[in-house]
Amino acid sequence: MSKIWIIIYNIFFVPFFKLFFWIAPLFNQKIKIGVADREKLFENLILNLTGMDRKKKMIWFHSSSMGEFEQAKPIIEQLKKKYNINVLVTFFSPSGYRNSLKYPYLDVISYLPIDTKTNAQRILNLVRPDLVIFMRYDFWPNLLWELDEREVPHFIVDATMKESSKRKLPVLLDFHKFLFKGFTKILTVSDIDKKNFLDFEIKKEVVCSVGDTRFDRVYQKSLAAKNKKLFKDGMFAGKQIFVVGSSWESDEEVVLPAILKLLQNDPSVIVFIVPHEPTIMHLERLEHSLINEVTSIRFSFLNNYQNEKVIIIDSIGILLTLYSYADAAYVGGSFKQGIHNVLEPAVYGIPVIFGSKIENSQEALKLVELKGAKVINNKKECYRVIRLIFSDKEVKEKMGTICKNYVLENIGATDKIISEINKYI
After folding, report:
1. According to CATH, what is the number of the domain 2-212+412-424?
2. Which of the listed residues 164, 185, 397, 401 has the most CB atoms within 10 Å of its CB?
């Protein structure tokens, strides 16, 4: 039965992927960019590999997008410090690819080609990896089967698997048993994930629970962020700062009315609003919603600051540093498709709040369980929670301590992953 899956995948699924990449760019700008960037994928890869010292070991990391690549960075940086190696990183999405181009620890950056057998053979012939590491997920069958055939060690790192995963449905379960059986190591973020992977009849010695590198990465970034100055010394002396991070319109519909009420009742509070996508339209909509209620200013105009109560952030890449100024934070996405990174504010030891869509985040669920974070479902709950946090110092400090300790207690996954990688370098 196992070999039949190779035939089924290549006859039915690969043509569908090809058709998707032909039609989807007509309707989706992000996919259009990715397809355009892939036009000379192999030519660019050949050029980038030319002149490389092939006596060095080649370690290949694959990430779907930027979020998964952030999880790879602590591993890459430790490996680069410890070994004289080449590192290739591939991406599926253009956001990951384009945002990684200036990352200094990489030797080669590329997209992953469409998962045909020919493409898998071609990229492996060019790269000749000694070890391939897939971050979290986004593993492609033909590439995996070709790695199996060539006996190239390959890992999944920061692996997660839900008890209710659709991969466990009838038929799909048998397919994934075949897909996963060739992995050299599957390093999960928790014991629960390990247990769920073992449902695929993987050898016990292959699956190890080592933790999540996101904790290591957030902690590293927080140390660097504290040295960055975004505001003049003393600019907010005597004030309490509330950061609304990575907000979508669905977040703002709930949070903004609560913020306006809080600002009326507590003159000590300053609010930073950080839209997930700071487009002109989004910024203007925010300003319009505030104009008759409270004074506001954009971050880029801060030289003209005159004690405005709301600062709208119209720059990208500074959210983690903004959290370092905060007394509490709301994390966006939790009234939309799923919450953004809750560890980024938690690492600074501040209370965290968010909406109810947190199923995609084990960290958010855990922080709620520990009582370091609170879920809000509507405007009234939001006001009640933030009013409590900003009026009760003991509550604020207790929640913040829980958040910080949670991050610090989970640091160390990178070292465990490196110890497993060491066996193959």
Report:
1. 3.40.50.11720
2. 185
